[in-house]
Design goal:
This protein is an alpha/beta fold and about 300 residues long. Helix content is about 30%, strand content about 15%. The chain starts with 6 loop residues before the first helix and ends in a 22-residue tail after the last helix.
């Protein structure tokens, strides 16, 4: 098994660890950043207990523009990790955020597509363990199984009970980047009856070869819809790692976008998020000048 981390990712990974151990740093002192969260973003005051982990976690939700004025309408739900980085520069670990609320506001305004987003805060210095589905001896225990159980058995029932969701798997999506992409990949393996769609950005397949072994042993459902993204400037092995995964993915609706100049950061994922949403939900892309991503031809995925 291979555990060597590409140098480019190592820099970003170390920075992420440092930032996550001080999750409130952005809100303190004279250099505090102004909030960029839109009116649709809500931070739940109730922290949810994480069974088996002895911790609690905050949720940050995005409710679409029509939510209050269309009380009979129900919405698909997108579950995402690292919620501090999704909506607000003031809470983001690196001073830039995904712009999830701005993107979905634009889809609502110009395409009529709306969804609820449930962002789950990362665990600071526990983030690496919580988002690791499989162990890596260099980095300690893997708690991804317990984390996913928390999402499926605690977070989703809470959201479905308190908000007007479409709770079936066809309308339940998970999106993640880096280690969040790794645990998103595992969510389709462990809970195919819950998640029907996923976006996997810059996946940390270097973390454990179990990602390949488990995908080979437990194929995704054929009707799953999965969007892969990787940047060409994320490290020498990043693109080959993702291409190595492609022949193992059995879902029929799968696409891979390689952005040659893409880096391993929120700015890259912010740019990619609207394209993933458009493809996953069959909506016309916001940027009509770009070619639409096509399903991955089998010949483009070397083993």
């Amino acid at each position: 098994m291979r555990f060597d981390l590409p140098a480019t990712i190592l820099v970003a990974f170390a920075a992420a660890l440092a930032a996550c151990t001080t999750p409130h740093a952005a809100a303190a002192g004279p250099a505090a950043r102004a909030s960029t969260a839109g009116p649709g973003v809500h931070v739940l005051q109730e922290r949810l207990a994480m069974p088996g982990l002895g911790r609690e976690r905050t949720l940050r939700l995005y409710l679409p523009p029509s939510y209050e004025r269309a009380p009979a309408r129900r919405y698909p739900v997108i579950y995402m990790h690292d919620a501090q980085n999704l909506f607000d520069e003031a809470t983001s670990s690196f001073g830039s955020e995904w712009g999830v609320d701005e993107t979905l506001d634009a889809f609502a305004r110009t395409r009529g597509f709306e969804a609820i987003v449930v962002g789950i805060d990362h665990g600071g210095d526990e983030r690496l363990h919580e988002l690791a589905p499989w162990p890596n001896p260099k980095y300690g225990p893997a708690q991804g199984r317990a984390y996913l159980a928390f999402v499926v058995d605690v977070v989703k029932p809470y959201v479905d009970a308190h908000y007007r969701t479409l709770p079936d798997r066809a309308n339940t999506t998970m999106v993640g980047s880096s280690l969040g992409a790794l645990v998103t990949h595992d969510a389709l393996l462990r809970y195919p009856q819950v998640f029907g769609k996923a976006a996997i950005f810059s996946p940390s397949y270097w973390f454990s070869d179990e990602a390949y072994a488990q995908t080979r042993a437990h194929p995704w459902p054929a009707d799953a819809r999965v969007y892969f993204y990787i940047g060409g400037r994320e490290g020498d092995e990043s693109v080959p790692d993702v291409q190595r995964m492609m022949p193992l993915v059995t879902a029929r609706a799968v696409t891979l976008h390689i952005e040659p100049q893409g880096r391993h950061d929120e700015r890259a994922w912010r740019a990619e998020f609207p394209r993933a949403v458009a493809w996953l939900f069959g909506v016309r892309p916001l940027d009509a000048t770009r070619p639409e991503t096509s399903p991955l031809p089998s010949a483009s995925a070397p083993s």
